[in-house]
């Protein structure tokens, strides 16, 4: 047992402080004149502890109690019994809070007096502080439980009434709590069910969550009387994102499937504060096999090496020489030595499964695991540091392990420890920390975590940033070499949030190891880019990492391929849309392996061949795999197009061309698959044969017509497909298969099958959203229409807006005969001679209707499509001219895309060169901007004036045509 002399002959500076506090006490109304007899003792105590002085001044009735010595040397007061008696008359939570705080302050003041006057050993002090804390936590929990039970009844289980077990972690669990400490808790209960016997029955989970919340408030909340303890719940399963309370089965699943080495290390000191004889053996049986292996667990050495390396790095980086806990040779290193040996040997030596450091240190000597001389020196130095720690915290009840930087506290420290001056104290400190650090270095060896010790000036601080438990201020300071404070704050916040989220993940130890190597590399790549976008890039990249951190194959891919990691950063930085695609479909990461190929999309005439090649790799009898292969092909090709787009390789017209040709190849393949499936079941229909047609599955009386953006070669990222299905079968004969159906019905079922292949969601999502509302009679019409019926509808029934839509329609895939027939019908309809006035009215009415329902109400943004002077105005102008003048200028029906129609309008001199060029420029500018907005996931373009000249020009032309 380590002893220190009782302080005597305090310095004048300290005695002046004691006298000042004494004077304040004498001025209180409740001052008892008999206390004058104890003035010398009280002044000495007040001089050494502002905390004790403050408590006595605020609560004069404490004075007599703190002057009463502990009844028996080494015996801890019965805090549980004392507190239970005081809580007996408590009738409200407000009273509970006050009682707990006053009880805590009184008995902490008594412990402080005994400590600073060296009337008790540091071992006894640690035991009493821990016992006091345990009594406060458990008794508060029991009082709150009783109150909750009055309303909700009690949670009952297979063995009777269920408790909420409170697991104390760290020094609380080890019965070695420091004076002014946080308390780390974990709550658990035995079984799920419903409460019984109350006015309102609720689930056990709800009951115990309410109890836990109230207990945390009772301890943690700051009132006029202060607080009892700061409560930290981050060590529970899943960390801050996990449930506050967890039942046994869920806790067992977590620790079996997801528990990590650092949690094993932390749980070595975990102790149930309120054990009983009913369910307690079960929770002990759950935790024990997680913490301790049945063999000498040298597999833990690798993780312990990494922990040790992190400790060394943190000490070195933060220069913690004045921190007696975290600094080199500090309290934490001593704890690490003992807990590591417990973790390694506790499975074979059950005696080492006790939580206390001092108890286990003695066992390590008895078992000859540590040499007696070394272990004794370690214990002596550890207790000396714990005494210093208590002194520092008892000066003013503050949680600190930092040596004083003011003369008063230095004088106090020297007086309590019995050293003549601070220089002598510093010499003793160096001696004790040297003893501990020597043992720390010998424990595992110096081959610790080579990846953490790389001499890489750029990467090393980022390893610290990721691996060390830094505060936000410390993270921002570390980022200072790359970012200013305004840039560092969101960057630090994003990284901290991501680190917190990992505690709730199923990442596993191997994935965590890879991630710990990978994240610093990711940070370095991001920070070497533009500081202005660093936090944005980090957020996007971490979005991808959140999607893949449970899949180590993808983590390995990025770690082993620096080019792929850099490409990921580049793509995510350029576009949140791309980020979202990769997050939703991590298979796209494979495309990053060849950066050169990634920004070099497939040639327009090669999409069909590439898709056929991809489909050959799939079993043609496995429909699900075929559907998945189609979706994966689309996703990968779309990513290549976006990569080329964001790097400027493809201009806007080419981007739309690639997206359009990609869609066409997929439509072709889908129709092919649908036809194959239909004919296998029903046989072929009796369609009109043309001996001049090539024998092709897609030339058998069926065609797909594309409208809108697909028809106009103007598809964007995420565009729907506007489709119309046509056939030319007039026969009522049955199909020639085993399950024959009428030939016309075959084409209806074929259309349904095509839509099924497009719309069904697989692991890679749906293929395309397909819109069929432009078919004859819209949603009320048949899914597939005979070409003659289509012609009749367009001639006799269709509205003007449907003829407008036809200007942007074209044949996509199917029978050449139908292609020709559709072209004829389309030209005939568009080339009809129309009265201009009614046409103008119809077009403007439809435009106003669209603007009303779809236009932007924003005063600051510009809806590129629907707002005045936007894309829709240009499209309506073009469509009007086709419908108004194609009878006179047939070339206007040749093309379905607006840019080439505008060229025809210029050639026909229906519009001036100036106006057609302005409309073409505006149209391409808007489309290009729209691509950018989609890639940035923005709904509107900011109205900063850059579009004003184009908008004004479009509006002028519109008014010139439709208003004048």
Automatic annotation (TrEMBL):
Where in this chain does the record put each PII-uridylyltransferase/Glutamine-synthetase adenylyltransferase domain?
Answer: 305-440, 840-940
Q: What is its EC number?
A: 2.7.7.89, 2.7.7.42
The cross-references to SUPFAM superfamilies, in alphabetical order and at most eight, read: Nucleotidyltransferase (SSF81301), Nucleotidyltransferase substrate binding subunit/domain (SSF81593)
Q: Which GO terms describe its molecular function?
A: [glutamate-ammonia-ligase] adenylyltransferase activity; [glutamine synthetase]-adenylyl-L-tyrosine phosphorylase activity; ATP binding; magnesium ion binding
**One GO location term (cellular component):** cytosol
Keyword list, A-Z: ATP-binding, Magnesium, Multifunctional enzyme, Nucleotide-binding, Nucleotidyltransferase, Transferase
Q: Which residues form a coiled coil?
A: none
Locate the Glutamate-ammonia ligase adenylyltransferase repeated domain: which residues?
40-277, 565-822
Task: Tell me which domain of life the UniProt entry assigns to the organism this sequence originates from.
Answer: Bacteria
Q: Reaction catalysed?
A: [glutamine synthetase]-L-tyrosine + ATP = [glutamine synthetase]-O(4)-(5'-adenylyl)-L-tyrosine + diphosphate; [glutamine synthetase]-O(4)-(5'-adenylyl)-L-tyrosine + phosphate = [glutamine synthetase]-L-tyrosine + ADP
Show the segment(s) annotated as Adenylyl removase. 1-451
Which coenzymes or cofactors are required?
Mg(2+)
Chain positions covered by the region annotation Adenylyl transferase: 460-964
GO annotation, biological process:
regulation of glutamine family amino acid metabolic process
Principal EC category: transferase
Which InterPro entries does UniProt cross-reference here?
Answer: GlnE (IPR023057), GlnE_rpt_dom (IPR005190), NT_sf (IPR043519), PII_UdlTrfase/GS_AdlTrfase (IPR013546)
Q: Which HAMAP family match?
A: GlnE
Describe the task this protein carries out: Involved in the regulation of glutamine synthetase GlnA, a key enzyme in the process to assimilate ammonia. When cellular nitrogen levels are high, the C-terminal adenylyl transferase (AT) inactivates GlnA by covalent transfer of an adenylyl group from ATP to specific tyrosine residue of GlnA, thus reducing its activity. Conversely, when nitrogen levels are low, the N-terminal adenylyl removase (AR) activates GlnA by removing the adenylyl group by phosphorolysis, increasing its activity.
| Protein family per UniProt | Belongs to the GlnE family.
Q: What is this protein called?
A: Bifunctional glutamine synthetase adenylyltransferase/adenylyl-removing enzyme
Report the source organism.
Answer: Paraglaciecola mesophila
Query: What gene does the UniProt entry assign to this protein?
Result: glnE
């Amino acid at each position: 047992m380590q002893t220190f002399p009782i302080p005597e002959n305090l310095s004048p500076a300290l005695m002046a402080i004691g006298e000042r506090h004494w004077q304040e006490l004498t001025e209180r109304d409740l001052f008892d004149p008999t206390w004058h007899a104890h003035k010398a003792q009280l002044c000495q105590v007040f001089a050494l502890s502002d905390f004790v002085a403050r408590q006595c001044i605020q609560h004069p009735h404490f004075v007599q109690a703190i002057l009463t010595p502990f009844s028996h040397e080494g015996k801890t007061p019965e805090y549980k019994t004392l507190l239970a008696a005081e809580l007996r008359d408590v009738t409200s939570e407000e009273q509970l809070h006050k009682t707990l705080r006053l009880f805590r302050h009184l008995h902490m003041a008594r412990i402080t007096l005994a400590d600073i006057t060296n009337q008790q050993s540091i071992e006894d002090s640690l035991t009493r502080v821990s016992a006091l804390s345990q009594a406060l936590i458990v008794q508060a929990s029991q009082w709150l439980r009783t109150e909750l039970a009055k309303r909700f009844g009690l949670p009952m289980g297979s063995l009777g009434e269920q408790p909420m077990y409170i697991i104390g972690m760290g020094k609380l669990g080890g019965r070695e709590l420091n004076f002014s400490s946080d308390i780390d808790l974990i709550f658990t209960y035995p079984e799920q069910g419903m409460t019984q016997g109350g006015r309102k029955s609720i689930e056990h989970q709800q009951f115990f969550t309410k109890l836990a919340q109230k207990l945390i408030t009772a301890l943690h909340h700051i009132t006029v009387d202060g607080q009892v303890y700061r409560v930290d719940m981050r060590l529970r399963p899943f960390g801050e994102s996990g449930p506050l309370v967890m039942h046994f089965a869920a806790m067992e699943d977590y620790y079996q499937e997801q528990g990590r080495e650092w949690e094993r290390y932390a749980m070595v000191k975990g102790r149930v504060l309120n054990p009983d004889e009913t369910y307690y053996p079960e929770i002990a049986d759950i935790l024990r096999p997680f913490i301790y292996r049945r063999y000498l667990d040298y597999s833990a050495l690798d993780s312990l090496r990494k922990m040790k390396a992190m400790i060394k790095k943190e000490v070195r980086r933060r220069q913690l020489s004045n921190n007696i806990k975290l600094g080199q040779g500090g309290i934490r290193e001593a704890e690490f030595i003992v807990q590591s040996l417990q973790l390694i040997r506790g499975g074979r030596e059950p005696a080492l499964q006790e939580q206390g450091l001092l108890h286990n240190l003695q066992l390590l000597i008895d078992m000859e695991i540590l040499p007696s001389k070394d272990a004794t020196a370690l214990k002596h130095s550890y207790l000396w540091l714990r005494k210093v720690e208590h002194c520092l915290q008892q000066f003013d009840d503050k949680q600190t392990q930092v040596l004083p930087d003011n003369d008063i506290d230095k004088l106090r420290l020297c007086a309590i420890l019995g050293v003549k001056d601070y220089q002598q104290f510093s010499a003793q400190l160096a001696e004790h920390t040297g003893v501990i650090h020597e043992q720390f270095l010998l424990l595992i060896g110096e081959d610790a975590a080579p990846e953490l010790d790389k001499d890489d000036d750029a990467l090393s601080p980022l390893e610290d940033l990721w691996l060390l438990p830094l505060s936000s201020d410390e993270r921002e300071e570390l980022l200072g070499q790359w970012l200013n404070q305004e840039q560092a704050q969101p960057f630090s916040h994003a990284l901290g949030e991501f680190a917190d989220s990992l505690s709730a993940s199923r990442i596993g130890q191997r994935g965590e190891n890879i991630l710990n190597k990978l994240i610093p590399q990711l940070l370095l790549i991001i920070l070497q880019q533009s500081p202005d976008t660093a936090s944005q890039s980090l957020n996007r990249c971490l979005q991808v990492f959140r999607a893949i951190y449970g899949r180590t194959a993808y983590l390995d891919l990025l770690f082993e391929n620096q080019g792929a990691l850099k490409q990921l950063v580049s793509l995510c930085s350029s576009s949140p849309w791309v980020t979202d695609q990769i997050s939703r479909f991590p298979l796209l990461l494979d495309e990053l392996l060849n950066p050169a190929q990634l920004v070099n999309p497939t040639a327009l005439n090669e999409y069909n061949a590439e898709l056929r090649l991809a489909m050959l790799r799939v079993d043609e009898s496995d429909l699900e795999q075929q559907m998945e292969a189609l979706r994966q092909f689309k996703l990968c090709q779309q990513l290549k197009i976006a990569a080329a787009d964001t790097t400027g390789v493809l201009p806007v017209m080419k981007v739309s061309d690639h997206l359009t040709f990609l869609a066409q190849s997929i439509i072709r393949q889908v129709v092919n698959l649908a036809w194959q499936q239909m004919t296998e079941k029903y046989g072929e229909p009796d369609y009109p044969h043309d001996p001049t047609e090539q024998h092709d599955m897609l030339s058998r009386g069926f065609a797909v017509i594309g409208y809108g953006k697909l028809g106009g070669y103007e598809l964007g990222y995420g565009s729907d497909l506007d489709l119309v299905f046509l056939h030319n079968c007039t026969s009522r004969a049955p199909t020639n298969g085993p399950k024959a159906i009428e030939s016309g019905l075959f084409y209806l079922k074929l259309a349904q099958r095509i839509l099924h292949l497009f719309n069904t969601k697989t692991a890679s999502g749906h293929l395309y959203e397909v819109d069929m509302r432009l078919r004859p009679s819209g949603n009320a019409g048949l899914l597939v229409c005979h070409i003659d019926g289509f012609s009749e509808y367009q001639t006799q029934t269709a509205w003007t807006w449907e003829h407008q839509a036809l200007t942007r329609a074209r044949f996509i895939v199917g029978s050449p005969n139908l292609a020709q027939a559709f072209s004829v019908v389309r030209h005939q309809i568009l080339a009809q001679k129309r009265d201009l006035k009614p046409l103008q009215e119809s077009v403007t009415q439809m435009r106003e209707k669209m603007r009303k329902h779809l236009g932007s109400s924003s005063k600051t943004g510009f809806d590129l499509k629907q707002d005045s002077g936007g894309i829709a105005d240009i499209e309506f102008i073009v469509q009007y001219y086709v419908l108004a003048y194609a009878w006179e200028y047939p070339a206007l029906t040749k093309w379905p895309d607006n840019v080439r129609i505008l060229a025809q309008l210029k050639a026909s001199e229906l519009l001036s060169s100036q106006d057609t060029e302005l409309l073409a420029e505006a149209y391409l500018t808007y489309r290009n901007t729209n691509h950018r907005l989609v890639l940035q996931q923005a709904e509107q373009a900011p109205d900063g004036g850059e579009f004003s000249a184009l908008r004004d020009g479009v509006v002028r032309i519109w008014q010139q045509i439709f208003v004048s």
